[in-house]
Amino acid sequence: MNSLYIARESMIHRLDPRTKILFVLFIVISSFLFKDPAMQLILLIGMFPLVLLSKLVKQYLMSMQFLMLFVVLIMTIHGIYNPIGETPVFEIFGGLTFKYESLVYASVMSFRILVIGTAAVIFVMTTHPSDLAIALMKWKVPHSIAFMFLSTFQIIPIIAREAKIVMEAQQARCLDVKANIFERVKHLVPLFAPLFIITFVKVHQLSYVLECRAFSRNGVKTSLRETKISSLDYMFISGMLVLLLTELYLSFAQQISLTTSNLLVSSLFAVWAVFFIVIVKFVYKKVSVFIGG
Amino acid sequence: MEPFIKVTGVSHVYPNGVTAIQDVNLEIGEGEIVAVLGSNGSGKTTLVKHFNGLLKPTTGQVTVGNMNTKKERIAKLSSLVGYVFQNPNHQTFLPTVRQELYYGCKNLKISEEETEKRVKKAIELFELENLLDANPFDLNSSKRKEIGMASIMAISPKVVVLDEPTTGQDHKGCKRVLELVKMFHEHGHIVVLVTHDMQLIGELNCRVVIMNKSRKIADDRADVVFKNQELLKTADLQPPQVMELANQLTYLNRNESYLTIDSIVKWFKHNKKGLEEERKIGTGS
Ligand SMILES: Nc1ncnc2c1ncn2[C@@H]1O[C@H](COP(=O)(O)OP(=O)(O)OP(=O)(O)O)[C@@H](O)[C@H]1O
Ligand SMILES: [Mg+2]
């Protein structure tokens, strides 16, 4: 299957896609309810058991690597330069001071990216695209729109594959894709023009194929795959409801704030450390390919 | 003399873990036409993609004109080894044939004179004088494929690799490919063909490399390979129909190879004369 979906036998995979859509919504709402970095961290850590349950820890960490880039940039630049900061926390390289308020702002923003990213990754990796389309249809989303959704998911890997072929085909015409950055910008045309043409041709063909299989016929459609709301889903949904109510109470009635400058500083260091490891791993991989072959 | 392309103990493993070729050794010298045959997924495309550095060997070494492909850029190797992709849509995208022809040389950044010279040669070779201002997308598929080839030949590479040049072509298109391959050969290019078209191989009677389950299992002239029933069976190949007919007609000369219709017809003509003469002598005496 050409998608981000990774098949596993797990509880999370068995959940109805609708439950998982609600879960993503729940996480987004929760994340925006709290303006406290500590709560964002709790959300993030709280979701990790779900990743474990879905048996996709490695793939999850791989996909988070990319987000780390944003997190590091936001934490560092906002932490130093954001004008809302007043109380200095600590100083690096003389003169560059991290301020408490800026750090709070930066870490809420960056943890939010991680929190929502995690929910999205769990959703996408554990939900078969066809199941998603079926689930949407059960919510009375028109068939054609559900299909558009589904085919968008599926066409991305196809385009990626074609892009690779086009890249090779253009290099075979002496296009130097490893040239300097200005040259490379010019190379976007020979890479994208064929890709667009091919994608349009493919989409066009797809529409013919669909019509040949009576896609636009009216009436009830059945599906090969079935999704069912089970007791597990009810448990999951009630759990989320309870949590949501608690969160509402906490954030409006209590105005809790667990954040301390110690926490902020250690999370900043943790983020740097993780990012450093990612970079080292990346460089090591590049170098070992270059040397070892 | 050193062979132009030298493949030594090359294996290639794709990132997903598929071993597409294993321990392949191959040498291709000046003026050769080499056809790579084998069933689907046997590793033909993977092998020839090593010739211009599109793929780098996982183990082993590929040298092209004394350059190790691992150390050179694809763009540079491509000026020596032209690779014509199966689907011209991946390669051609400009609005006129003329621009397509100039495109490769522009990437090479060679002098204007040299560019003109090379493009002019390609125009002559492919007889494109009347099509220069046509839009490649308006042409039929065999012409489009030819434009794809011409755009590569305009770079004037020493070697030209054709991946399945006759697939999806009508009779005329196939004949044209045969003609072009012979022409490239005459102009001193090394030609590497990846194909399932046995008739084309029969007509060319060129050197044949057979791939099977990611290994090279044979490397010989087409007529020799096509007589080896066991080999053909292993590689799941069918010789040209003429050859099969010749194999069935047991009274044909066993030492000869009949790769083309012409060769069989010649035999019949020749032997008819012989038979008649014999009969004449017989009745005369
Ligand atoms: N980009 C790729 N990534 C992973 N595996 C690949 C890739 N390209 C080819 N393969 C695999 O490598 C093997 C050899 O493929 P290759 O394309 O070289 O075969 P081929 O002989 O050219 O076949 P065909 O006659 O179908 O063109 C196949 O099993 C194929 O699935
Ligand atoms: Mg192939």
Task: Tell me what the structure shows.
The complex is a heterodimer of chains A (293) and B (285). With 293 residues, chain A is mainly α. Chain A has one domain (11-292). Chain A contains 11 helices and 2 strands; from the N terminus they run H-H-H-H-E-E-H-H-H-H-H-H-H. Chain A has helices at residues 11-14, 17-33, 37-53, 57-81, 100-126, 129-138, 143-171, 181-186, 188-212, 231-254, 261-292, and strands at residues 88-92, 96-99. Chain A is flat and about 65 Å long. The model of chain A has no long low-confidence stretch (mean pLDDT 86). Chain B has 3 domains: 1-80 and 157-237, Rossmann fold (3-Layer(aba) Sandwich); 94-153, no CATH class; 240-285, no CATH class. Chain B has 285 residues and is α/β, with parallel strands linked by helices. In chain B, strand 4 and strand 5 (67-68) form a beta hairpin. The radius of gyration of chain B is 22 Å and the shape is globular. In chain B, helix 4 packs across helix 5, helix 4 (97-108) packs parallel to helix 6 and helix 5 runs antiparallel to helix 6. In chain B, 43% of the residues lie in helices and 21% in strands. The A-B interface holds A 162, 165-166, 168-179, 190, 193-194, 197-198, 201, 293 and B 49, 52, 54, 56-59, 70, 73-76, 78-79, 82-85, 87, 89-93, 103-104, 107-108, 137, 151-152, 155. The complex binds adenosine-5'-triphosphate and magnesium ion. Adenosine-5'-triphosphate binds at residues 14, 16, 18, 20, 38, 40-46 of chain B.
